[in-house]
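Recall from the previous lesson that a structure prediction takes nothing but the amino acid sequence as input. Here we apply that procedure to Competence type IV pilus assembly protein ComGB from Ornithinibacillus sp. 4-3. The sequence below is the only information supplied.
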Amino acid sequence: MATLSKINAIYHKHKKINQELQLLFLKRLHHFLEEGYSILNALEFMQWDKHFAHVVEPIIDALKGGKTIDEALKTITFHSTITSYLYFIRINGDLLGTLEKCIEMFEYRMKYLKKFKQIIQYPLLLLLIFTILFIFMKQTILPTFLDLFSQSPEATTAVNVSIIGIELVSNIVFILAIGSIALLLCWFIIQRRISIEVRIKIYLRIPIYRSYLRMQTTFYFATHLSAYLKTGMSMKEIVAGLSAQEKLPIIAYYAKLMLYDLENGFPLQYLLTQLKLLDQKISLIFQRNNDHRTLEKELTIYAAILIEELQRRMMKVLTLLQPIFFFILASFIILIYLSIMLPMFELIKTI
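The prediction returns the following tokens.
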């Protein structure tokens, strides 16, 4: 019986928890904490729900074993976005506030990921169908046309042009697909082996991605900084805490540079203007405010503006994706149509 329970525990430890359940878990936990329950009492109540029974038990064991909340959630494969955000409870001690922000961020991520899947699934299906049709034409129909129209030089020329065109498009698509996959695999392999300075230089060379990463990095920086300022910590203590964490490597690297300046008596305003993955408005906020309370307020407001702008841009990208997919599909259809009809027109001309 003990062996069976051990096997069951191992199974649930490695079983992937879907993201909807993870979000519901966070919301339920936040609700109990808001009502004044301790985290262990809240988890014990949540254990009564059959959906959370297998989730809560290893978390309670991990917390009783001295692990932090982010470490406990990591043991049962909670998403890295959640564990990375909750890591900062170790520094600011604000479980309720950090959990609330974490829910907001994860809900936003899920919403746009779901929207993205809805937008691309139909075009992708059509693209797959037309790709198969494209390959079938190249391998079967056009060679048959060559035999059929062998008596007509003009039609044969048209068929050969169609074959060359399809061959060219197929090779370009194949090279692009294989090249993209190879680049992604290489990046996943080497990214941890290269320094953060080199990675930042690479990020800054990717036009669209660097804009998104700048907004995301600025949002995380403003959010965590404002949260720590609420606790009454000094700027040096906050920056030291940010530099020690490993969940957000860009912010950790930037925080180390800030810590060096603070230790040497330099103001942060000038350094902030040199950090390319932080928005310049951050340095303006620091220039205007020396009072921690005012700085915390303005950083909170700015973080809210950033998340709204991120959402607006994400919606813009998503609304552009579908027309782009349909344009590609239309190009496939026109190419297939021309490949079939042009040789036939040439043949008709000779009759």
